[in-house]
Amino acid sequence: MTDVRDGVVAGAPRAAGLPLLGSVLDFRRDILQAMHRGRTAHGDLVQYRLGPVAVHGVSSPELAAEVLTDSDRFGKLGPDNPLRLVLGEGLLTSDDHKSWLRNRRMMQPIYTKQALAGMFATMGVSAAEQIAHMGDRYRTGAVVDLHTEMMRVTLDIVSRCMFSTDVSRTLAGLGPDAVDVAINYAFDRLQNPLSPPTSWPTPRNRRFHEVMRGLDDLIYRIIAERRRPDAPTGGGDLLDMLLAARDADTGQGMTDRELRDEVITTFAAGHETTAITLTWAFYLLSRHREVLERVQREVDGVLGDDLPTPEDLAAMPYTLRVFEEALRLYPSAPILPRLVRRDTELGGYRVPAGSRVLVNLYDIHRHPRHWPDPERFDPDRFLPETGKARHRFAYLPFGAGPHLCIGKHFALMEAHLLLCALVRRWEFRHVPSHRVVNHATITLRPRYGMLMTMHQRTPSAARTAHVAGERTS
Ligand code: HEM
């Protein structure tokens, strides 16, 4: 019998699971599939058990609005958040409202549209170098893992724009998969609260600690170099701003540990997200010839041989819509976790303090009530007039509420620039024998990478043809 008090049902419908483990194995196998099955069977709010931890899956814009905007009831995960093993207490993982707000305010100025406009040139130089580098390494017809290539490009951009430094080579020295090792380790612990303690000398624990030592050394070195009295400034970059910031109450600057946490958070949050979405965007373009040709026409009609200027970008809105639609189908942070701070009610069900909520952006972005024909790749869903009719929380690739992605405008400017510049030079074709399967860790990656062949385009010729076509039509 259902227990109802004051019109509130005691517990949300519960997904079946194994004794003791609950849904741990299902989540490890494929968390998005498991939650999708739960939603199909039980509705937009479903309860799971991950060992001893109760978790509520949320899959509707209405419920997401409540969870993401009310941080008194639904906060960030606490000190046991495994992501803290990597990111410490930077913006993404801090659960202390006061210090989070102080740091967020301190960093906000670097992310305003005006400050970003000043960064456009640095972004452009980095993009040009990275694209030229790809051109030097690969001949037309070469097979590349586009995911790896995009990661390299976006890491370089975020390092130079935010920290005026080039970290790629040092990171490569830690092993090609160092950052992956750290992030996957933390994510596995998030999904499986029964993981062995980090202090046990297992091979995986040892590798994790080794990678973290390397990452920490690198970041503390960047900070120490900038703190030297004779060090050149970063020209007002994010690190300069963090070093100069003072607490309004105490007058204290940030400690090295606080700086390290914000730096590593910016690296982690600020490059893979954009790289993955670009990868999915090129995959989608390779599967939808008509959309690709429309993008090519738009880009060829605007760009010459140089990289785009901000005015050029404004003249290529369809290409931006392609990126937005890729973010709908493959939100790069597909699940946003929250901790229930006190006993409360959600969607007509009681939700106990201490349990977790997982806001499932992947399912919300495909919710049949809000997205007609949700699986179809259609960038024109993002025409300004179409968007007006949509529920405000039906599209949340950058989150919502107080924790809305601070780098949203940076990411959109960067992605637009890269998408246009890459489309102008190459066509990427999916290798038909290569299996493409999405894999949700903290981000939504292609599980086996993204093998594509690169085909050089001759944009000047294409542009001439396009312009001539416009004249005669
Ligand atoms: C396509 C690219 C990106 C996507 C899809 C994305 C997505 C997100 C999402 C969904 C959140 C909210 C997390 C939550 O509520 O728990 C977030 C937060 C954040 N993002 Fe992004 N992000 C992107 C790019 C960037 C970039 C380029 C940067 C920095 C250079 C960045 C830095 C951050 C930070 C620091 C936070 C934490 C904000 C806070 O809690 O105050 N992100 N991002």
From TrEMBL:
It comes from Streptomyces prunicolor. The keyword Coiled coil does not apply. Belongs to the cytochrome P450 family. SUPFAM superfamilies: Cytochrome P450. InterPro entries: Cyt_P450, Cyt_P450_CS, Cyt_P450_E_grp-I, Cyt_P450_sf, Cytochrome_P450_Monoox. Keywords: Heme, Iron, Metal-binding, Monooxygenase, Oxidoreductase. This is Cytochrome P450. It comes from the Bacteria. The keyword Transcription does not apply. Pfam families: p450.
